[in-house]
UniProtKB/TrEMBL annotation:
Subcellular location per the Swiss-Prot or TrEMBL entry: Cytoplasm
Gene Ontology cellular-component annotations: cytoplasm
Keyword Cytoplasm among record annotations: yes
One Pfam assignment: CofD
Residues spanning the membrane: none
Family that this chain belongs to: Belongs to the gluconeogenesis factor family.
InterPro entries: CofD, CofD-like_dom_sf, Gluconeogen_factor
Keyword Translocase in annotation: no
Function field: Required for morphogenesis under gluconeogenic growth conditions.
Key words of the record: Cytoplasm
Protein name: Putative gluconeogenesis factor
An example Gene Ontology biological process: regulation of cell shape
Gene Ontology molecular function: any one: LPPG:FO 2-phospho-L-lactate transferase activity
């Protein structure tokens, strides 16, 4: 009897996604990254506005995380022109390559598959949709704001978010995304911004439905720190409650929670100006929502910031795969 490689699907964007991908790459698993296409800030936002292409930044970082290229080639792909280079200021070379290939191939999905083969990636990278999407947020004070960067800059309490395209159609993920979710053994959400990295993927209707219907274990890696405005004073249970509310059911099976205290005097809040304070714990409510809670020291302190320890998080993900499937 042949055993297939365990299939792990990681859904997200921002800086958290490539961290988990790099850790999983060293294990004997079949990796698929499903990447948000609602980013509209920085180089990605400028290219999106002028070339009308899916924002490439999160996709670029995922490609590099799974690539088997020599270091110099990765460094070239990631190189960002200096702000004094007026014509190309702030653009990463990889963003330009992805945008060019998307134009050549008539869409981002085919472009990324081709680039993945060129870069010899370990796994699959699927943009969640083949078109740029806009993130929308309704705030507790009644405001409605469009655009991920505008929503983040508003520093307001968000009630709920949704995504839209420019044609007033219901956005849909390509079939490969849905097949990956339904065939997975484990779905990993996070770490990353709750409202602007994780939920933009899940608010595509067929993606959210697939995540609720899949037989895979859904694991949420809870953030270590709250995000200014968006998740101020949130407990770990509050994060999961927001996810469940958006999809209309308790779909998160397991939550990874850091319980190592973050030293008060270590964090540079000027440097890391989007974070507020450590996420507090409410294990009782998590269990009432049907979650298995895995609490441990997942903390890595570096550069006066608080991050997840990649190796410890990935070790737990691999442990869960073995516990559930063997």
């Amino acid at each position: 009897m042949m055993h297939h490689l365990p299939k792990v699907v990681v859904i997200g964007g921002g800086t958290g996604l490539p961290i988990i991908l790099r850790g999983l790459r060293d294990h004997n698993v079949d990796i698929t990254a499903i990447v948000t296409v609602a980013d509209d800030g920085g180089s990605s936002g400028i290219l999106r506005d002028y070339v009308n292409v899916v924002p490439p930044g999160d996709i670029r970082n995922a490609l590099v995380a799974l690539a088997e290229m020599p270091r110099i080639e990765k460094d070239i792909f990631q190189y960002r022109f200096r702000s004094t280079d007026q014509f190309l200021a702030g653009h990463a070379i990889g963003n330009l390559i992805i945008s060019a290939l998307a134009e050549m191939r008539g869409g981002i999905f085919e472009a990324v598959q081709e680039l993945g083969m060129m870069m010899k990636i370990h796994g699959h990278i699927y943009p969640v949709a083949n078109e740029p999407l806009t993130l929308n947020a309704a705030f507790a004070d009644g405001r409605v704001i469009r655009g991920e960067s505008e929503i983040t800059a508003a520093h307001g309490q968000i009630d709920h978010v949704w995504v839209s395209d420019g044609e007033h159609h219901q956005p849909e993920a390509v079939p490969e995304v849905i097949e990956a979710i339904m065939d997975a053994d484990q779905i990993v959400l996070g770490p990353g911004s709750l409202f602007t990295s994780i939920l933009p993927n899940l608010m595509i209707e067929n993606v959210g439905r697939a995540v609720c219907e899949t037989k895979a274990e859904v694991v949420y890696i809870c953030n270590i720190m709250t995000q200014k405005g968006e998740t101020d004073h949130f407990t770990d249970a509050d994060h999961v409650r927001v996810l469940n509310k958006h999809l209309g059911k308790n779909f998160v099976d397991t939550v990874l929670v850091n319980i190592q205290p973050v030293p008060n005097d270590y964090i540079d809040f000027k440097e890391w100006n989007e974070i507020s304070q450590p996420v507090t714990h409410d294990f009782r409510t998590l269990r009432e929502m049907g979650c298995r809670v895995i609490s441990s020291n997942f903390l890595r302190l570096r550069d006066n910031g608080a991050f997840h320890d990649r190796d410890k998080v990935v070790e737990e993900l691999i442990n869960r795969l073995h516990d559930v499937h063997y």
